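hey so i finally got around to running the thing on that chain from the lab meeting. sorry it took forever, my laptop kept dying and i had to restart like 3 times. anyway pasting the input first so we r on the same page abt which one it is
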Amino acid sequence: MKLNLHISQPFSPNPSWGQGFGPAAGLLPGAKRVRAVNLTFLLNTALCAALMAGALHAQTKQVDFELMTWPEVKQALAQGTTTALIFNGGTEQRGPQGVNGAHTLIVHQLGVEIAQKLGNAILAPTIPFSVNRASAALPGTIGITGPVFAQLNEEVAEQMIVNGFKNIVLMGDHGGGQQELADVAKKLDAKYSGKGIRVVYCGDVYTKVGTDFNKWLTDHGYPVGSHASIKDTSELLYLGGDKGWVRKDEIPNAVGDAQHRNGIQGDARRSAPEIGKVVSDMKVEYAVRQIRQLLSEPNSAVAQK
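ok and heres what got predicted. didnt touch it at all, straight out
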C-alpha cells in the first residue's frame, strides 16, 4: 500500500476570513487567528499520522509465527492464511569469514520474504540443525543424523497441522537433509490429503537455485565453489553485512586449499553484496513459484483413487 500525501500550495490565511473557518467580513483578532491556524495544523497533522500508521501496518503484516500471539495466529487462519513454511537452516562452520549460524539467519530472513510474497503463509520457527557432523578441527558445526532430522520435521509439521494450518511446506538451505524432507512430505501428504491437508517439499529453493546460480557465476566470470565460497559469503554480505554476519577483514584471504583446512571449498575473495542479492532473489522467486505450483496440483495418491 503506497500513501502519497502532498499539499498543492502553501497555506496562506485569507484576509477576508472572519471568525470560524468560512469567509466573513472581518479579520480574526491576532490571538484567535493563531489559535485557529494552530488547530487546523494539529488536525491535519493528526489525520496524516493516522493515515501513515494505517499504511505502515498494511505494509508490515506479521508473518513470523514466533513474533505472533495465539489470537493473532487464530485470526490469520480465519482470514485464509493457512500455509505454514517450515524452513530448515543449519549450524556449521562457514570459513574464517562467515558466522556459524549463517544457514539459519538466511532462511529466517528469506522465509519471511517468501511468506509475504505468497500472501497466505506464515513462517514457522526456523530449525537450526541439519544433517551434518561436528569437527574438532573446525569447531563450528552442530549436526544431527538423518533419522532425527526427519523425525523433527515430521513432528513440527504435524504440530502445525494441529494448530490449524492446511498447507505445510518443507524446505531446507543445507544439502544434507534434502532427501529426508522429500520423504517426510510424501509420507505426510499421503496421510493427511484425505482430510484436505497438503504437505509438500519445495526443493527448488536449494537444488535448482544452486544449479542456476552456478551457471550465473560462470557466465559472469566468477569462480564456482561449494562451501563458504563466493555464493555463501556474498549472500551473508547482502543480507547481514551490517549485522555482524561476516568478518569482512577475512575476505581478502578467503580461499580454500586442497585439504580445506580453513573450511572453505572454493574462492570467496571476490564476494560482494550485489552477488548475494542475485542468489537471495533467486531463492525467493523459485520458492514462491514452486510452492504455488505444488499447492495447485492434486495429491497424486488422491488423484489415483
